[in-house]
Specification:
There is one protein chain. By secondary structure, this protein is mainly beta. The protein has 4 domains: about 50 residues, no CATH class; about 90 residues, Immunoglobulins (Immunoglobulin-like, Sandwich), CATH 2.60.40; about 120 residues, no CATH class; about 270 residues. The protein is about 0% helix and about 40% strand. Strands 12, 13, 16, 19, 22, 25, 29, 35, 40, 44, 47, 50, 51 and 54 form a 14-stranded parallel β-sheet that branches. A hairpin with a 7-residue loop joins strand 4 and strand 5.
Length: about 625
């Protein structure tokens, strides 16, 4: 009988010597482990090698919420009739048309760009002896429809901070990555638009890339978009003028001036569109069902209204754009630049993102609904809406003499100057409305009383009429009338539910008798902490007539014009005693300046410094 000695080196420097002998059943070990100071020689009774059957999987299901950025986990039961344990089973994740991941991992992070499509998972179970099933076992809940979201079934919120730092200056985490195709004449998918008649091809199914020359196309009114791209193959409208410069930096002769209206049209990328001096009402309209469209590097000026987003027009993005002024009639109509509204009694808009834009002398953003106007009371749901890294400025250009005449030295403004108006919220706490890293300044005067439809307010944000699940953080508001107000309930049971207001800066806000830099009223579940209110003209905050579970704590007031007001609250407000008042920035430890760049989409950017607003 021949013997074979096989040596293995183990991690613990244990030398294993296994002696094998040939038997009728094959090669089996006959000696034992030998280590340091160990001398054993115990014979093992050999066991015959049996056939290795393919393992199986059962009770298969996908765990987690199918939303962009979320982690899904494949849960299953492994079984093997030979008693083997599980090895490196192969798991595949795919849409109906594309495999997204094939690996040994049970988890999968949903990438962006697949919202509205379906995802499923399959497993090829494998045992530790190397047998793998040729059968792909599918999850019982294939297919799940992917929705917009950011992480863990939620819209990703920034980390909640405990210091006033001002807006984070890094690029927004919410920006859509844009890779523009070339305007290549040899590409059969490219359509050049050089005249008004060329727009007739915009919905051709064999064309996907539309390269628009400079020119005035406004006589066509809103050009109708009725075809859709896909997540993998988007459709593009691109300014083709020989450069790649932001339209806010170009002469109007270098721009393409037009308006668009979408009808159930998805997955378009509109780059460097312009709309200026146009007589029709809405320059860009997203009708019901038009979703997953991106408007990048837009420029508008002196128009009635920019964008109207209607029911079920979901996951649209407006980014890197400059909106510079509206007409007098537009100001009187009190329309926000980006307005969410529909005529239905019940409507939903999900996932709009307004990111890294400049708003000048325009009301920026509104989530709207009617509450009893003309006998109509609407219900709206704005889940997962994101307003991040925008600047909003109101200049002396819109000041009036309070009699309807523009006057740069006047004591009124010819519009309702505001940042974001929220008349309804998100029905899902895990997908709140996000309002972060924005800056608003100017317009610190009352609205001209001779102009129609305007309230006597100007400031950053009002949330009311039962708005739910809103997150304000790292915003800076200065030299205007008010900062953030959560207020009247109207037809709702509460003014707001579950609003978080943290780490914002309110500087030199003028206020008036019923408007304050920071005002919390008729709220339930509000969490207001770590805000800085500096140099207020009157009372630095008001907390009044609130319901239950409200926190107002750890806020800092520096040199306030009057003490905070607190009255009529149904339950004790948590943390009121922890708020602190200082008479100077040095005393409070705020000795660092906050600096940002305005007018970055023009040829004359400005650096603005807010002194002593940050702790070093």
């Amino acid at each position: 009988m021949k013997k074979l000695i096989v040596l293995f080196i183990l991690p613990l420097t244990l030398l294993i010597a296994i002696e094998f002998k040939m038997t009728k059943q094959g090669l089996f070990p006959v000696t034992s482990t030998m280590g340091e100071n160990t001398t054993t020689n115990n014979l093992q009774t050999p066991k015959p090698i049996t056939a290795n059957h393919a393992p199986a999987a059962s009770n298969i299901s996908i765990k987690g919420t199918a939303s962009t950025g979320n982690k899904l986990t494949l849960d299953y039961t492994f079984s093997d009739i030979d008693g083997n344990t599980e090895g490196n089973s192969i798991i595949a994740w795919s849409t109906p048309t594309k495999e997204l991941q094939r690996s040994t991992s049970k988890t999968f992070i949903i990438p962006m760009g697949y919202e509205g499509t379906q995802i499923g998972a399959w497993i090829h179970p494998k045992d530790t002896r190397g047998s793998i099933s040729s059968k792909a076992y599918s999850a019982s809940n294939n297919y799940l429809t992917i929705e917009m979201g950011m992480g863990d079934g939620a819209v990703e919120k920034p980390t909640e901070q405990t210091e006033q730092t001002g807006p984070i200056t890094d690029p927004s985490m919410y920006l859509e990555k844009i890779i523009l195709p070339r305007c290549d004449a040899t590409n059969s998918e490219v359509q050049f638009i050089k005249s008004k008649s060329d727009w007739s091809h915009i919905n051709d199914s064999n064309k996907r890339i539309f390269c628009v020359s400079s020119g005035d196309y406004t006589s066509l009114a809103n050009i109708k978009i009725t075809t859709s791209g896909t997540a993998e193959k988007k459709r593009y409208i691109i300014l083709n003028n020989g450069n790649n410069i932001h339209p806010g930096k170009l002469n109007k002769e270098q721009l393409a001036n037009y308006g668009l209206e979408f009808y159930n049209a998805d997955y378009w990328v509109i780059d460097r569109a312009a709309s200026f001096d146009i007589g029709f009402t809405h320059s860009f309209i997203l009708n019901r069902g038009s979703s997953h469209n991106t408007f990048n590097r837009m420029f508008t000026q002196n128009i009635f209204h920019t964008m109207w987003i209607k029911d079920n027009a979901n996951y649209n993005t407006i980014q890197n754009s400059r909106f510079d002024g509206i007409t007098r009639s537009g100001a009187e109509a009190d329309l926000a630049t980006i307005n969410h509204m529909d005529g239905k009694n019940l409507f939903v808009v999900k996932g709009t993102k307004a990111i890294n834009n400049e708003f000048i002398n325009v009301k920026a953003f509104r989530l709207n609904r009617f509450s009893g106007e003309a006998g109509v009371t609407q219900v709206a749901n704005f889940e997962g809406i994101i307003f991040d890294h925008n600047t909003i400025e109101f200049t002396d250009k819109i000041r009036t003499d309070c009699k309807g005449n523009y006057n740069t030295n006047g004591n009124c403004v010819g519009m309702e100057s505001g940042g974001i108006g929220i008349k309804s919220g998100s029905n899902k706490p895990e997908k709140p409305i996000i309002v972060t890293n924005n800056i608003l300044w100017g317009g610190g005067y009352r609205s001209d009383p001779t102009l129609k439809y305007l309230s006597n307010k100007g400031g950053f944000s009002v949330a009311y009429m039962g708005a739910k699940n809103i997150f304000f953080q790292n915003n800076v508001i200065f030299d205007t009338m008010f900062g953030i107000i959560i207020a009247d309930r109207y037809d709702a049971q509460r003014g707001t539910w579950n609003v978080v207001i943290k780490n914002n800066i309110f500087l030199r806000l003028t206020g008036r008798s019923s408007v304050f830099p920071l005002s919390i009223s008729q709220a339930e579940g509000a969490d207001v902490q770590h805000n800085l209110i500096k140099d207020s003209i009157g009372a630095w905050a008001r907390v009044s007539w609130n319901y239950s579970n409200n926190t107002f704590a750890n806020n800092i007031a520096i040199n306030p014009g009057a003490p905070m007001l607190s009255e009529g609250n149904q339950e004790t407000i948590i943390g009121l005693a922890s708020n602190k008042v200082f008479m100077s920035s040095d005393e409070a430890g705020y000795t660092k300046d906050y600096i940002f760049i305005a007018d970055k989409y023009t040829n004359k950017p400005r650096t603005i410094r807010l002194s002593n607003t940050i702790r070093p």
